[in-house]
Amino acid sequence: FPVTIGKIARVDLNDFSTVSVLNLTTTDNDLKGFQGGFTDGRYGYFVPNYNGAYSGKIARVDLNDFSTVSVLNLTTTDADLKGFQGGFTDGRYGYFVPNYNGARFGKIARVDLNDFSTVSVLNLTTTDNDLKGFIGGFTDGRYGYFVPNDNGARFGKVARVDLNDFSTLTILYRDW
To answer: What is the pLDDT of residues 34-70, one digit of tens each?
Structure first.
């Protein structure tokens, strides 16, 4: 399991010796145990994984002041939305990669980064029950790709989602 602390460090890249620390747990004690993150340029987003229990609370940090923290609890939209393994953004939305929430799952959470409250869910297992337990993801600008890992066994099906409509799914599979 990941380390379940809530402190994040920011290093000044101009002198590489100035370090600022922000303790997310002063905002919410559940803000710890993240597994990955991404930025939209203004905010840093921390991907919820395991903080002693599987978590669905995203921490958003304002990178301009490195002290303003917002929280979005994905489990208020769907109780399964916790235990993610990585995330990415297309500039407008943040995507959270489904991994393990007590069981392998395949529900992608998409968060509107403009209002940081609108959550959409795409359940990949409604197309193919093997599409769960991913370990990361990325975008090429048009599609989101979800990297296969372990859905109860190691598997090799890559899920590709059209980010323009967040419903069109292509399965890329190679039996290595």
So the answer is: 999 999 999 999 999 999 999 999 999 999 999 999 9
Residue the block writes with tokens 């590489």: 16
**Residue 144: how many CA atoms within 13 Å on its side-chain side?**
30
- What count of Cα atoms within 13 Å lies in the side-chain half-sphere of residue 79? 2
Q: At 141, list the tokens.
A: 């600008």
Token duo for residue 159 = 């899920």
CA distance 131 to 123: 9
112's enclosing H/E stretch is strand 107-112
**Owner of token pair 């090799």:** 156
pLDDT digits (tens, 9 = 90+) for 114-143: 999 999 999 999 999 999 999 999 999 999
Tell which residue, 140, 122, 139, has the closest CA to residue 131.
122
Alpha-carbon gap, residue 81 to 108, rounded angstroms: 8
